[in-house]
Amino acid sequence: MTEPFRLGTTPSSTVGPYLAIGLTWPDGPDVVAEGTPGAIWLRGRVFDGNGDLVPDGMIETWQADPDGRFAHPDDPRGAVTTPGFRGVGRSHTVPGGEYAVRTLKPGRVPDGEGGLQAPHVDVSVFARGLLDRLVTRIYFADEAAANAEDAVLRSLPDDASRATLIAQPSADGYVLDIHLQGCTAKGMDETVFFAV
């Protein structure tokens, strides 16, 4: 060999499609156990930029309990008040592109400026083709007054953007579909994602 050995560049890694290997666990979707009073399901589907369902993604949630406290020892407001509430859920999408997390509707938490945020669930989306997770939120349609006061929702440019974050009531909880990109051919708007 007369020249120095050089390695070529390799393709960028993505966060999928191997999410089900070690990243999900059997009770991952259960922020609270089955039978917990007041438990609801957060359900939805994940769509890609073609408007197709994503069968191998993962949704991770983090939220406060109904009293607005986090399951973390550093929460200055004290421990969660609901026994067994762990605050985090993780659901892989099934071949139909659906996710589901059993939880409790969160309470309001301080916004850091003297006000309160509307009840919401923080969401990370992991899927093939993404170089990093996408971060969004789930708000609740039946919390209109709180949503109108929420600094994050107010910072969005229009009602169409806000609508991508607001889950609608269903028979057993709430439903919100997540769109990784917009698909105008199918009338789908991209979900609002946050740079964190």
UniProtKB/TrEMBL annotation:
<dbReference type="InterPro" id="IPR015889">
    <property type="entry name" value="Intradiol_dOase_core"/>
</dbReference>
<comment type="similarity">
    <text>Belongs to the intradiol ring-cleavage dioxygenase family.</text>
</comment>
<dbReference type="InterPro" id="IPR012786">
    <property type="entry name" value="Protocat_dOase_a"/>
</dbReference>
<feature type="domain" description="Intradiol ring-cleavage dioxygenases">
    <location>
        <begin position="39"/>
        <end position="169"/>
    </location>
</feature>
<keyword id="KW-0223">Dioxygenase</keyword>
<protein>
    <submittedName>
        <fullName>Protocatechuate 3,4-dioxygenase</fullName>
    </submittedName>
</protein>
<dbReference type="GO" id="GO:0008199">
    <property type="term" value="F:ferric iron binding"/>
</dbReference>
<dbReference type="InterPro" id="IPR000627">
    <property type="entry name" value="Intradiol_dOase_C"/>
</dbReference>
<dbReference type="InterPro" id="IPR050770">
    <property type="entry name" value="Intradiol_RC_Dioxygenase"/>
</dbReference>
<dbReference type="Pfam" id="PF00775">
    <property type="entry name" value="Dioxygenase_C"/>
</dbReference>
<dbReference type="GO" id="GO:0018578">
    <property type="term" value="F:protocatechuate 3,4-dioxygenase activity"/>
</dbReference>
<keyword id="KW-0560">Oxidoreductase</keyword>
